[in-house]
Structure formats: C-alpha cells, structure tokens
Amino acid sequence: MANELLDSRGDLKPRLTAGGLRSGLALAIRAIKIVCSVSPRRAAILIIDQATVAAALAFQVFFIQKLLVALTEGHGTSMLNAHLAIPLALLGISAALIAGLRVYVHEQSMLLSEMLAQAFQHKIASSVSTRPLLDFEQPQFHDTLQRATIMGQSVPLEITTSAAGLLGAVFSTVTLAAFLGHIDLLLLPSILPVLLPSALSASRNARTFRSWFIALTETDRRRQYIYRLFTRRDAMLEMRIFRSARSLLNLHDQLGQSRIAELRGIVRQRARRSVAASVTSSVIALCVLAYVLSLAGRSITIAAAGAAIAALFQMRMQLEAAANTMGNLQQAAWFFADFELISRGEQEHGLVEPSELDELTTGIARLEHIAMQDVSFTYPGSSGPAIQSINLELHAGSVTAVVGENGCGKTTLARVLSLQYPVTSGKVIWNDGPISSDQLAAARSHVLMLPQDFMRYLLSVRLNVNPVVGRWNSDEEIRNALHRANATGFVDALPRGIETQLGKEFSEGVDISIGQWQRLAIARVLLPTAQLIILDEPTSFLDPVAEHELLNAIRECSTNAAVVLITHRMSSASMADDIVVMGSGIIVERGSHRELLESGGKYARMHAAQRGGLRISLN
C-alpha cells in the first residue's frame, strides 16, 4: 500500500495517481483504526468534539439571523427580549458545554497520545525484530526507520484529529451552504472557487515538506548520532582525552545550521504559496459578498443579507480550515507510509514466545554435520564479495578454529554460518540436505553465536545471562552458565548477586570491567543447549588464566555440538581439532595445529609472530 505513494528511494512519486490517492486514503483510515483500537472511547471523544464545534458554528449563524430580524423589524425592548431569550440561553449553554468539552478533550488527548506512543514503539520494535538482518546493512532502511520512529508516534493521532476536524468542517460547510441556498441558490456555486486555491496550496505544501524531510533524513541521523555521543560516558571519556568535544560540537552545529537554512527556504516557499492562495480565496469571497450586498433590500431582507454575510465569513474560515486540514492529512498519511513500510515489510519470521521455543526446535533433525558448499556472500552496496567459494564442513563433537588477518572475512563467515545472513550463491547443508524455508526458523533455534561486538545490557545480571524471560529461569541454570564462563566469583561479590543492576546510568547500578562483561556474554551462549555454537573473538578481553578456563568450557560444550572459534590468539586456535586460515575472503589453509606449523604457511608465520613478537607482513 505504502509503495503506491513512494518510489524505490522512499521519496514521493512525481504525482499522486488515482491509485495513490486511494492508497493515501486507505493509510489514513488504517491510522484512524489504530487510534480507535488503542482507545475507542477517547477517539470517539475527539470526533464528538469536532462535530459539536461545527454544530455550534451553525447555531451562531442561526442566532445572528434571529437577532437581525428582531432588530430590523423594530420590536420593542420587551418583544426583543422575548425573541432572543431562548437563542441567548441556548448560546450560553452551548458555549459553556463547548468550553468544558475542550478542556476535557485536551486532557484526554494527552493520555491518548502517550498510549499511542507506547503502542507504536511496541509495533516498530516487534516489526524490526523480524526483518532480515541485511536490511540493517542499508542506509535507506535506517532512514525509513528514523522517520517511522519520529513521526509514527504522533502522526496517527494527528490523522485522527485532522480527520475529525475535516468532518466537522464538512458538516459546518454543508449546514452553512444549506442556509445560503435557502437565501439564494446562486450563492452555492461560490463554495468550490473559495476552496480550490487553499486546497491546492495545502497539497503542494505537504509535498514540499515531505520531500525536504526525506532528503535530510540521513543528515539528521548523523547530527543526532553526534549528539548522542555527548550523552555517553565512554564517548565523553575519549572526548576529554583527545580534546575533541569542540570539534564534534561544531560539526553538530554545522549540520543543524544547514538544516535550518534549507528549512528557511521551505518556509518561505510555503508561505508565498499560502498567501497567494489566501488572497485568491479572499478576492473570490469579496466578489460573493458584493453580490449579497447588491441583493440586500431587493430580493432578500436586510436581516437575511446580514446573516448571509456572517455565513459567508464562517464558510470561508471553514473552507480554509478544511483545505489546510486536507493538506495536513495528506502529509500525515505520507509519513504514516514510513511506518507501514517498516511494519508491513518483508519479515523472515514472527516473534516467538518463550513457551513456544521448545516446540520450534522440533522442526528439524538434530545436527550431525553442517556444510557450506561453494558459498559466497556480498553485502548490499558492495562491489565485491566479502567471502567467496567457501567449502567447509563441521561435525558435532568437534571444535573448528578460524584465523586470519583483520578484514579477511572471518566475521562474515560466522554470520552466514549462523543462518542469519542468506548466501549470495552456493548453499548451506544441514546433515544431508539444504535447509528449506520451512525449516529455517527451527535450524536457527539450534544455533547460538557470540558476536565480536557483543551486547552489554544495562539490566540485571540475570537478564544479561538469560534475556529470554520465561525460559531457563532457575537460579541453578543461570549459576551453572556463570560457572562455565568463570563468572561466578565476581557475580557473587556484587551487591545483589545475579539481581544486581549493571551500569551507573541507573540507580543502584554498578560498573564491571569489559572482561567481566565478556564473561556474562559467554554465559549467555553457554546457558541453553545448542547444536552449533559460534564464538567470535570470545577471549579478546580475558586474561590468560580466564582464557584457559574458557577454552576448557568450550571443549566440554563440543561433546554434543559443533563449535566454531574465531580468534586472533594462536593459543586459542591450537586447542581446536581443525583450523581454517582465511585470507581476502577465501580459505587459504586448513589442517590441525601441528600440520599447519609443519607446512610453514600463513598460519605458521602468524604463530611465530605471536610467540616471538616479530613484526612481519602476513602478505
């Protein structure tokens, strides 16, 4: 649906076709439905509020006519009071009710806005968690996600409010048009010419703003990234050390000033367009007003002419408000399209409840061996493959080490082997056959990977070891994983043990070292029972004793699982059953530790460099 409004880059198509208009209307209806589903009562209050205001405007015109009739017919004071008593009473009651209703609606709108924000955060987070990981390698996805996050929370309420306002304006306009038609049918054709300039202006203004907002999304992301650096303790430490705060702040301000300069041009352009439309509508309205004045005292009474003039002024205000509301509704629908692109885009799988994980794992046979057959992988936007022509077979019960210089493709190999990144060419074989689309989720549930840039959750120790609330919850299971990761000692010393909050950013939070964070991440991998375990630089922050103990724990895990150990440390690689040496995205050597040393190739040179501290080129 959203794709009918946007091109492949996320920008607006050159013009809205009939199908695009229908899609825009459908997006608006969907947004209103979301608001109604979050709180039907509060959404109804918004609509009733607008309808009440519209009815009050129509009643004001009716009251003006009654007042003018009473005045022009020369009634005495007592008669005048009798004629106006009921309208005045109703006007006072309605004014009081409207004032009270507006205050109540304002308070309810605040609550509805917060409820919508939370609902949309949940929807965006759940949708993003099921998108292919390759999406995160593309700037366009991050641009769309940024707009959906910023605008998605406020736009549905804005669409609902605008739609309610538009309905109110339409109701008022119809009522006033009926009143004018009763006075003189020739006044009705004036409605469209008064509306058209403002409607066209509002539509073009919405398109201009949307195009500008899209064009600057990546610049805004860069500026906000720099700002977030000033809110992070680790970044602030480096800024102090390298005296870089002023330079980064200047860069942030330059990006902001560039945004303001472009926005200033957009504002001028929109203002010129709006003023021209308003002047055109006013000229048309004045022509209609002159026509009404020419009728006064001839074909219509002075009271009717006065009421018609009041109705025309009210109608012009309502038509201009309706035109602007239509523009806002159009603009909001376009922004809601970003949310639709995120929430309704390609999804690899649905969210799985913890209680369903055991059932999910039964969808594929137990892993005996997994093989990569002539596998190549290219990142989106890259000119060449990160890995190519990889042929590798891993067996349950064995440990395979992968070594090589930086940038040789080790981490990419791990990502593809984890089944989270699809191969560009070749295939991955599970036991004796390729993994079907129906088996992919089940196969992934048997694979665990510790990334090199592992997560440090500013939550409790328990949730760092076991973020899957509802599974592996017992203290015994968590403590066993901590023991295998050699993390029991420092966790027991924390103020509240496994319930301790980590991170000084929160009250009662404590700091731990990067090596201790890594042990918690290792425990996270060792907690469940996996059939393929991939560890990317698991000992990079560990001391030699901790490294030795971890390698022993990995060896214990390999009795029932295939283990892949990506490492720069030759001491870690030497304990593996099989060693794969990579260079420039391909496998250049393979064998046991002894075989590779005796061959005198790249592995032997790397081993000698680490043992003797030699400065040699691996090329």
Give structural notes.
- The chain has 619 residues and is an alpha/beta fold.
- Helices cover 61% and strands 9% of the residues.
- The chain contains 21 helices and ten strands.
- The protein has helices spanning 18-38, 40-72, 77-128, 139-152, 155-183, 191-215, 217-229, 233-242, 245-295, 302-343, 357-360, 410-417, 440-445, 461-465, 475-484, 488-492, 514-526, 544-557, 570-573, 593-599, 602-612, and strands at residues 369-377, 387-395, 399-403, 425-430, 433-434, 447-450, 532-536, 562-566, 578-583, 586-591.
- A six-stranded mixed beta sheet has the order 6-7-8-3-9-10, sandwiched between helices.
- Helix 1 crosses helix 2 and helix 9 (245-295) runs antiparallel to helix 10 (302-343).
- The longest helix is centred in the N-terminal third of the chain and has 52 residues, at 77-128.
- The chain is elongated, with a radius of gyration of 34 Å.
- Residues 1-21 and 614-619 have low confidence and may be disordered.
Strand order of the largest sheet: 6-7-8-3-9-10
Q: Regions with pLDDT < 50 over 5+ consecutive residues?
A: 1-21, 614-619
Shape: elongated
Helix fraction? Answer: 55-70%
Beta-strand share of residues: 5-15%
Overall radius of gyration = 34 Å
Biggest pleated sheet: 6 strands, mixed
Report the mean per-residue pLDDT as an integer. Answer: 80
Distance between the termini: 52 Å
Structural class: alpha/beta
Strand segment tally: 10
Tally of DSSP helical segments = 21
